[in-house]
Write a structure and sequence with these properties.
The protein is of the alpha/beta class. Helices cover about 35% and strands about 20% of the residues. The chain has one domain: Spore Coat Polysaccharide Biosynthesis Protein SpsA, Chain A, CATH 3.90.550. The radius of gyration is 18 Å and the shape is globular. It holds the Pfam family CTP_transf_3. This is 3-deoxy-manno-octulosonate cytidylyltransferase.
């Protein structure tokens, strides 16, 4: 939450990641400064971070509670998110008592939500309605991204503050060659002004040769996203859209309904945890960089 920034790791790779993430934040800050001269002084100033967490994942039941080097993954995500400077409040939203008990044990604020929430965005919407304070921006912080840099959280907030024509912001990073065919790694394409054009589980763009172009800067979507709260309140009322259903990607419903989504590019090496096999990869990544 609002406070001092975290200290970068001594690892060259992690330090580089934080430096580039910081550059994205700096760019967002500059854009925000320009827009601020034309907007009310407190435009989208009140920000809450919500970590949606459910136990009944189809691919990985109980995922938020899985230990990552001895700590529950949801705890690692919480501790990382608390280092962000732009959050006025941080909560976990869950429909599971085991997750709620775990979060309470390490000091997290928990909001219980319905089991009928179809995705993380709807869970954030319900949690927002149960908060006593009013907020302008909700940051949906994925519980399966335990190494998300706090600078990236701040970056998506400032990107949305600097783009009054957008209702949504998110982040992308470079796609690794080994992930081009992995449907769990969502790809993204953006326009020349930094707005999202499309997201897909398949490789995009897909050239006529049918082969990966080693020189093309393919983009990987990171799960973090922020919303204008006025939009978030109407999001559940929007009917599911064909592309959203086909790709099983909730952000496509935003685009299909004609809303704009701002995207920032960052350097982020660690992947999220989508399957049990990803736990070993995450722990190996952390050991190699001396991340406890």
């Amino acid at each position: 939450m609002r406070g001092s920034s975290s200290t970068p790791s001594s690892s060259d790779g992690t330090t580089r990641s934080w430096i580039i993430a910081g550059a994205a934040v700096a760019a967002a800050t500059a854009a925000y400064a320009v827009v601020s001269r034309r907007r009310p002084a407190r435009f989208r100033s009140r920000v809450v971070g919500i970590i949606p967490a459910r136990f009944a994942s189809s691919r990985f039941p109980g995922k938020p509670l899985v230990p990552i080097l001895g700590k529950p993954m949801i705890q690692r995500t919480w501790e990382r998110a608390k280092l962000a400077n732009k959050l006025d409040q941080l909560v976990v939203a869950t429909d599971d008592k085991k997750i709620a008990a775990c979060c309470s044990d390490f000091g997290a604020n928990v909001i219980m939500t319905s089991e009928t929430c179809r995705n993380g965005t709807e869970r954030c919407t319900e949690a927002l309605q149960k908060l006593t304070k009013k907020f302008d921006i909700v940051v949906n912080i994925q519980g399966d991204e335990p190494l998300m840099e706090p600078e990236i959280i701040d970056g998506v907030v400032m990107a949305l503050q600097a783009a009054p024509d957008a209702v949504f912001s998110t982040a992308v990073t470079s796609l690794k060659p080994e992930d081009t065919s992995d449907p769990n790694r969502v790809k993204c394409v953006v326009d020349n002004h930094g707005y999202a054009i499309y997201f897909s589980r398949g490789l995009i763009p897909y050239n006529k040769s049918g082969k990966v172009n080693p020189h093309f800067p393919y983009l990987l979507h990171l799960g973090i996203q922020s919303y204008d709260t006025k939009f978030l309140k109407i999001y559940p009322e929007l009917p599911p859209t064909p592309l959203q259903l086909e790709e099983d990607l909730e952000q496509l419903k935003v685009l299909e309904n004609g809303y704009k989504m701002k995207v920032i590019k960052v350097d982020h090496e660690a992947h999220g945890v989508d399957t049990p096999q990803d736990v070993e990869k995450m722990e190996r990544f952390m050991r190699e960089r001396n991340l406890s």
